[in-house]
Structure formats: C-alpha cells, structure tokens
Task: inverse folding
C-alpha cells in the first residue's frame, strides 16, 4: 500500500517538532517559520510577553492552528483513499493531533477557569469528542480513550495539556524581557517543569518531577521568587474522567523566607509541631510540608542561611521524602516539590562549612540562575522601556500614562545608560515609584555610583602599572564575580571557562568588596 505524499510526511515531521519543542526558545520561532513558509510574519526571536498583545493573539498562532487542521484533514483524506502511514508518520500525526487539541480547546481558556468544575466539564466534553474523531485512524490510540490513566488516554492527555497551558501562562506572565538572558531563563523554567523532552514527560515523568528539588540562584532583586512561583504553580494535576474534574481545586504554593525567621520558628512552620513541644505550643500544628499536596510546592527563600541542624532535617526530606514534627516521633511523608533560592555563593558557603555539601548535591541537579538587570540591558537596552512600562501600568493602571515617559527621561538624564542597577529589578521598581512620588530618585550609596574602596585600590594599581597580567586578571575576575553573584554569570560575561573564574578569585579582595558601605 503506497504511503501518503512526501509533502504531507515532511509537514507532519515539522509539526511534530513544533508540538514538542520548548515554546520559549528561539527554536520554536524557527519551526514556525518552516511550517508556515510565506505565511510566516517576523515577530522577534522568541516568545515573550508584550503589552501590545494583551487583547489579541500573536500573528502566527492563528495561521499555525489553521495549518494543523488543514494538515490533519489532508492526511485523513489520503488514508481514506487507500494510502498508508508509516510508523514514523503515524507518530508525527499523533503529535499534530495533540497540537490541534491544545489550541482548539485549551489555549484560549484562562487557567483559573479550568479549575472550576462546571467549566472544565464543558471543555472536557468537547475535547473528548474531538479526540475520538481525530484519532479514529488505524494505528492511532483511539481505543485507549476509555482506559483512564493510560499515557495515551484522552483524560491523561487533557491533564497534561492543561498543565502545559498553565505553565506557559505562568512563565509568560512572571518572567519578562526580550533579552537573550531573559529568553534563556524562560526556557530553563519550562525545562524545570517538563524537562527537555516533553513527550517523555507526558508518558513517564509527569508524576515524578515533584521528587526533584529545584535550586534558584542569582543576585537579590532578580525575580527568584517569581521563577519559583512559575514552577510551583505549574505542577501536574491528574484529571478524573468519571467526574470530569481535576483531583485538586487549585494549585498550592507555600513560600517561607528563612532569613526573616529564627531556627525554631522555621522548624515549626516547615515541619509542624506537637502540642507542648515548646513554650507556647498550646495546640498541635501542621507544617507546610504536611499541608503541601502532591501538586504543590514549598519555596524556601534564602536557603543558604538555613541553620545547620535544619539542613540535616531538610536533607532527609529531599532524600527520603520523610519528616517528623517538632516534638513528635511519627514519620510523615512529603509529597510535593521543594524549591530553594539563594543569592549566596554556595560554593564558598560549602568551603567555609556553612552549607552542607550533601544537601547542595541534592538540590543542584535542577539549578536555575536568574540574570541581573544589568546583564539583560547590556544584551537588549530597549528592555528598560518595556520593564518601566510594565511597572507604571501596575502603579497607575494605564499603560498610556505619562509616568512611563517621565521615568525613562529622568533615568536617562540622571543615571545614564550604564547605571549598574545593583538592586536589579527591585531597585528599578523603587526608582519608578520614587519618580512618581517625588519626581526624582536618590540611590543609596551602596547601590548607586558611589565607588567601592576595594575597587579603587585595584584600579589604581592597574592604572599605576604595578600589577602583573595575572594579577590584573585575578582582580578583574574577582570584581566581575562580585558584580554578577555567581561563577557561571561571571564566566559568561568574561567569556572564559567557569573553572578559570573560580581559580582566579581573590578571597580577601572579595571580602573587601562585600564589606564596603
């Protein structure tokens, strides 16, 4: 039996790649261009949130949805006329079906609406009907629609696609900017949720990813909690086909700032306590590890400051998923996901004995580094305008308000394009708020242009000619490491290997940078 035409086979392959790729990386746009050909309209190198797209769809999405429906119809017509699909083309067709179902039934729903039982039941009814129609072809898994829990069942596919939509919405909403560092960050967050292989996740990993902790590192003010929220609020929630509802009404995200609490309070908040376990414990209390459901996450901000004794307890949670309450002896099971964040250099913290190596290696398999605002603006200066527009819209509720132009003009005239933004996005927010209130912004010495004494000393030696080439490299590596907050970021900026940066760090000079006012 002859196969379907080569044109359709090639388009099925391209669409299959499109349906399973990371939507936030440039590869997605490259595939859109290949699929649409002359119909493709240039629209940036990667997907990112822009205010002008608040009320309308992106240019190419409608064309892609139409192309998927047209391709499915042509393939089905050829099969009905006696042509066949190879195993490879059959697999590709299945991915095109997934894409079509996602964009027809789920993408245009608000994620909050998909948690409402009556609304989701209606969406599910239409989804299941089309699932049966589109998979009614020899070799495709149409029969498994009646087998709940099967990786190809309609109910499981519906749950995964709703998660895909929720994750896209969260990442798209929380992580802003069109610079390459911002694009990379969105792509990394997507991988933290689904890994780099979405199809493997759908088949085998959907119920296992909560077992893997995520560690978010980066300078203060770079949005580490936003990254954690995007991940924590995007976990898999099973769908019950019989009741036509999700197994949980809403997602759960529990955030705990460890730097703002005593060790005893952290232990009580995290692990819970028994009545009478300490003075003031007048009743038994459930901790967040106990309250967190399997689709939820516990976020431990400033995990680098966790007390040594609590590090041991947390290590047991990450290794065995078991814990006991303060003052208790009964073992409990933690079923959610641990997400930690820190702006500290954990390599240095481990060397000094302040952070356990075994805990670090339990956390670092999935590590995300948030870029500084300076890194983003160095790559794409125009992002400053967008970020300020986003801030002013939140402040005054009107994207066309003159506050945006006022803030941009003031920053350009008084701080300049090379301003360091030591406080990162958090400082930018305060700057815009101050301009709104007082018409100006007065940076503190620690984050403005005030020179650092340690910096003056080594730059003076460099200008004076008293440094060797190796000494100058050592001091410059230390300074860039101090600015960026991590070996990886410093290595990228210096365009040298991470191990070279690490070997060149002058610890005494680094400490002088850290302790200057």
Result:
């Amino acid at each position: 039996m002859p196969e379907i035409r080569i044109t359709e086979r090639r388009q099925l392959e391209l669409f299959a790649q499109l349906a399973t790729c990371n939507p936030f990386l440039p590869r997605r746009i490259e595939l859109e261009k290949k699929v649409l050909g002359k119909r493709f309209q240039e629209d940036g190198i990667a997907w990112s949130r822009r205010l002008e797209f608040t009320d309308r769809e992106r240019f190419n999405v409608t064309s892609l949805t139409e192309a998927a429906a047209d391709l499915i119809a042509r393939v089905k017509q050829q099969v009905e006329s006696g042509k066949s699909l190879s195993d490879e083309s059959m697999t590709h067709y299945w991915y095109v079906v997934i894409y079509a179902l996602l964009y027809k039934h789920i993408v245009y729903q608000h994620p909050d609406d998909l948690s409402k039982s009556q609304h989701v039941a209606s969406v599910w009814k239409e989804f299941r009907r089309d699932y049966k129609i589109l998979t009614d072809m020899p070799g495709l898994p149409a029969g498994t629609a009646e087998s709940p829990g099967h990786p190809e069942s309609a109910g499981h596919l519906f749950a995964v696609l709703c998660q895909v939509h929720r994750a896209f919405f969260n990442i798209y909403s929380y992580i802003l900017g069109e610079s390459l560092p911002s694009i990379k960050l969105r792509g990394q967050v997507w991988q933290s949720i689904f890994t780099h292989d979405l199809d493997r996740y759908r088949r085998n990993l959907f119920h296992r990813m909560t077992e893997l902790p995520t560690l978010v590192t980066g300078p203060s003010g770079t949005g580490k909690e936003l990254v954690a929220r995007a991940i924590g609020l995007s976990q898999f929630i099973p769908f019950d086909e019989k009741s036509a509802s999700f197994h949980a009404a809403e997602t759960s995200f529990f955030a705990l700032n460890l730097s703002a609490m005593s060790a005893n309070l952290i232990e009580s908040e995290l692990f819970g306590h028994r009545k009478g376990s300490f003075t003031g414990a007048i009743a038994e209390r459930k901790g967040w590890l106990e309250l967190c459901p399997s689709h939820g996450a516990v976020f431990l901000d400033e995990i680098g400051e966790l007390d040594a004794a609590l590090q041991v307890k947390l290590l047991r949670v990450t290794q065995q998923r078991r814990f006991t309450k303060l003052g208790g002896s009964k073992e409990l099971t933690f079923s959610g996901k641990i997400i930690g964040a820190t702006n500290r250099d954990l390599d240095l913290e481990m060397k000094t004995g302040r952070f356990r190596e075994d805990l670090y290696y339990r956390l670092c398999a999935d590590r995300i580094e948030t870029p500084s605002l300076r890194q983003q603006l160095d790559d794409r200066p125009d992002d400053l305008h967008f970020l300020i527009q986003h801030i002013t819209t939140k402040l005054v509720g009107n994207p066309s308000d003159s506050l945006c132009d006022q803030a941009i003009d003031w920053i350009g005239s008084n701080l300049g394009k090379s301003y360091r933004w030591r406080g990162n996005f958090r400082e930018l927010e305060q700057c815009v708020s101050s301009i709104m209130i007082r018409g100006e912004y007065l940076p503190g010495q620690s984050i403005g242009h005030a020179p650092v004494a340690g910096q003056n000393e080594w730059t003076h030696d460099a200008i004076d000619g008293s440094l060797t080439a190796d000494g100058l490299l050592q001091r410059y590596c230390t300074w860039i490491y101090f600015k960026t907050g991590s070996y990886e970021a410093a290595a990228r900026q210096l365009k040298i290997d991470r191990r070279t940066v690490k070997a060149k760090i002058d610890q005494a000079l680094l400490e002088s940078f850290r302790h200057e006012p």
User: Anything to note?
Assistant: The longest helix spans residues 59-80. Residues 224-369 form a domain with the Rossmann fold fold (CATH 3.40.50.300). The longest strand covers residues 337-342. The chain is about 55% helix and 5% strand.
